[in-house]
Amino acid sequence: MSRFFSNQHKELVPYTPGEQPTGRQYIKLNTNESPFPPSEKAIAYAAEAAKQLELYPDPTCGALHKAFAAQCGVSPDEVLMTNGSDEILHFAFLAFCDDRHPAAFADITYGFYSVFAKLQHVPYTLIPLREDFTIDPEDYVGLGKTIFLANPNAPTGIALPLEAVERIVRGNPNNVVVVDEAYVDFGAQSAIQLIHKYDNLLVTQTFSKSRSMAGARLGCGIGYKELIADLNTIKYSTNPYNINRMTMAAGLGVLEDEAYTRANCRKIMDTRLFTTQALRQLGFNVVDSMTNFVFAKADWIGGQALYEALKERGILVRHFETPRLKDYNRITIGTTDQMKALILAIEDCREGIK
Ligand code: PMP
Hints:
Elements: E1 27-28, H1 40-49, H2 62-72, E2 79-82, H3 84-96, E3 103-106, H4 112-119, E4 124-127, E5 146-150, H5 162-170, E6 177-180, E7 201-206, E8 219-223, H6 225-238, H7 245-256, H8 258-281, E9 284-286, E10 293-298, H9 303-312, E11 315-316, E12 329-332, H10 336-353
Helix pairs in contact: 1-7, 2-7, 3-4, 3-6, 8-10
This protein binds 4'-deoxy-4'-aminopyridoxal-5'-phosphate.
């Protein structure tokens, strides 16, 4: 730390992203990326856009807002595209949280929420998940706080039904409820259809998972137009050109190629079923997932030991050190061949232990 670092941030412990190895080639099942390449349209549009990199991009992101809004069945002033969904979540903390509007979220959820809260010195409450990692919606009713709800949740993969999400939104009419739908496309129900009913609902989504665009950084918020106007105030006060030309063009390409996205989601869901069944046969407890990852623990090997044994065998998964999670690993669903390689590697570990 330099002697110039602001006192405000001296205690800050930043978010730790999953490993992005640059040397050895691993089967990467650790950061919930798509195993499929981006849509060919996205690649072609981005390449064309690269020819005009000398010019700033459209700060209003007009064409992309229009196309995405049409796909969601909302109007363009009800959406805001951002640099990954991490940026819309950051904007939401800046716009809707302060001393009078503290934050609340589950004790086990996306790790960035507590980092954003600490960055801005927003007080926050952690709401414990039940023993089986599910959320009790009643814990969130009448909280008087800005709520951040990952649905489906991470790293558990468990989804709340739409009625439960609505109960939480309806139960907090004077507070914003942010529903983070990063993983919604793998079988869960989206709350977008509720945004015209509740002026306190902000839904966030990402192009990083189902749309194979993690490297381009594109996320979005969908909500009542006054909420979006507030988020725009934050955007134009931090980074008006938050979406670069190539990402904007790629985003349009992928939206025009919705059939490709849907086909990939279907493949991931099929492979998730295969992986869950194979892991269960190997003695794993696998949480029922509605995402592109599974959360699993075995009684014959610890979480850290499995992580290390797989890494030695060229497979990366995500392990968390916290007390309730340390026995588990979060395993991204890759291609069927990648998941077969995972199962073989786990069988090999088990042979070594016998
Ligand atoms: N929300 C959740 C629950 C996530 O797991 C992630 C990805 N790690 C994000 C948001 C952010 O994703 P991105 O910034 O790539 O859109």
